[in-house]
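Section: Multi-chain targets

For targets with more than one molecule, the full set of components is provided together so that the structure can be written out for the assembly as a whole rather than chain by chain. Components appear in the order listed by the source. The example entry contains four components.
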Amino acid sequence: MVTIKDMAEMLGISSTTVSNVIHGKTSEVSQKTVEKVEKLLEECDYVPNNSARSLTQNSSKIIGVALKSRKGKYDNVMADPFMSVMLGAIEAEIRSRGYYMMIYTTDDISELIRNILTWNVDGLLLIGIVHDDFVRIKSRYKKPVVLIDSYAPRDIMNYVNVGLEDERGGYEMTRHLLDKGHRRIAFLADNMEGVDYIRYIGHQKAFAEYGIRTREKDLLIIRPDMIERESSMQELYTLSRNYTAFMCCSDYYAVMLMTYFRDRGVKIPEDLSITGFDDVMIARVSLPALTTVHQNPTKKGRLAVDYLLRMVQGEEPPEWDTKLPVELVIRDSVKAVTPYGNDEGVFTEE
Amino acid sequence: MVTIKDMAEMLGISSTTVSNVIHGKTSEVSQKTVEKVEKLLEECDYVPNNSARSLTQNSSKIIGVALKSRKGKYDNVMADPFMSVMLGAIEAEIRSRGYYMMIYTTDDISELIRNILTWNVDGLLLIGIVHDDFVRIKSRYKKPVVLIDSYAPRDIMNYVNVGLEDERGGYEMTRHLLDKGHRRIAFLADNMEGVDYIRYIGHQKAFAEYGIRTREKDLLIIRPDMIERESSMQELYTLSRNYTAFMCCSDYYAVMLMTYFRDRGVKIPEDLSITGFDDVMIARVSLPALTTVHQNPTKKGRLAVDYLLRMVQGEEPPEWDTKLPVELVIRDSVKAVTPYGNDEGVFTEE
DNA sequence: TTGTATGCGTTATCAG
DNA sequence: CTGATAACGCATACAA
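Its structure, encoded as tokens over all components, is:
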């Protein structure tokens, strides 16, 4: 690897001059020298050493991208089709703006913090991180941070987030099911924090508009590993008899359930309606095609990077709380039913 | 950020001693000093500056992972379900072994080379790179490289590759179709290089065993963007009348075609059998579930990283040419048909 | 057992 | 317009 010093020696000039030419500070250098240096630069295929640059400039040009790895979901976090599309968009955007992407997936926040600090990362993108972890990170890392899909009380700590109209998504889907006559709807979520929780709020709101109270036991939490465990699926299968519709917080769950149920003779949507969320590829190719809530992961990723890089370059964040639009996509996994349940007093049994 | 020097000053000792303690060269330091330093290390949450380390040690602890971005496929390369699962495994393995992962997806090999060199990456993982590009990279980058899914003449340049029994995969699937009575089989590939080509070799071999010559026009190249273009799909649809089976080089293509055809009234597998390759999630959840060739992306990724890191640490590569096993997975997308075509002379028409 | 000095490649300051 | 020189944070050879 040829260095600036090497080249300076070759040309019999000082390294400062070479450096100046490299940085286009051509006003301070004579035309003749500029040409000489540029020619050599070409010949040597000079590539700067970024470690050295980072050291002097206290800026690494690295953007850290951290994913909380929820164990058990798919083979790994990246395998989530929604995540992988978004990550691809993030990578492309980071690279096209002249930065480098270092990616971490971990449960261990301390390790994450060490990694960020040790590379003196210029900016940080946090995906699916809970508020407590964010606070911990913020206490040690002082450069710009942008969150994707985080929810937290703004009064505790302000932050830049790129998210989704989750509440509206939950609302519209529920509304659709209610309009189609469904009353016994199970809400299937990963957990009761973050996006899933907000979608549930929307769910409740739609029910409220129909004058129905949602019941706690209709909220079914699916831990990711349950999908792979026969006994858990069996249990959901048994539960499904109490419902006319399963409303899932991701296409992935919806499709996995659909496949499992179908293999056991349940006809979708004749016997049970199922809906998804995200509108990734599997939603379109499954049979029946999934009624779901569309969002745009590419846009989400790009926007988050855009905000982050603006902040890295010293601008104010263009927006603190972005909520990208959702759109209800009606396909074939929901059947119209004659409303019942409410009239029979099912919802007031306790 | 507290530095070694800072801490040395606080303790009134030299930075060498602090450095020694950090690196566990405790034999050269008195017990008392060790304790003093370790205590301070804790208190200050000392994190080393990796740029500085890279500079002195000429080793960055970064592993570069490069994907050739074939434009138009999915939203981006990472969105390929096979790729994303493998990438997740790669990331986990790199991190768990104490290295950092920097990821690049690009078409531009020059840019890739610059990125690798500028960070002085310790090792490089190349995924789906053609031989010419590999040669170019090798000519500039002298540290260990491991390829995934590459094929090239070994006599030109030796290299470490982690691949798949592609030929056997192509062979077994074709054999299966032939056994089921299919004779008019279209082979759908992305391109005619790399893994797809080798799978085609296996395809031809199976045909040869049946005493049938494959015809060039049965080899349909699908450029990734065709999947999204109505006219191309229409064309494939028209072509499909000439065949009883479509054998695809990925589950993705298989499922996309299946969906398109189904929407136009073609019954799968009654009217047309379709097979995939990879056995990713969509193969299991589609309807009919896909008959496909299984491979293990997690293992592939992990193994490649393992080989690479051994080489980085100075060992000989454990193996030069690894071919992970494939397994035919028979599901519901292939129907048995009465063999015809060969007898009718279809294959000798020209 | 501890400290001093030097260099890694780059940029920045400042003097010529 | 050009060139010494110092500094970034760390590791190491060598001296004490």
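Chain B has three domains: 4-48, 62-164+298-324, 166-295.
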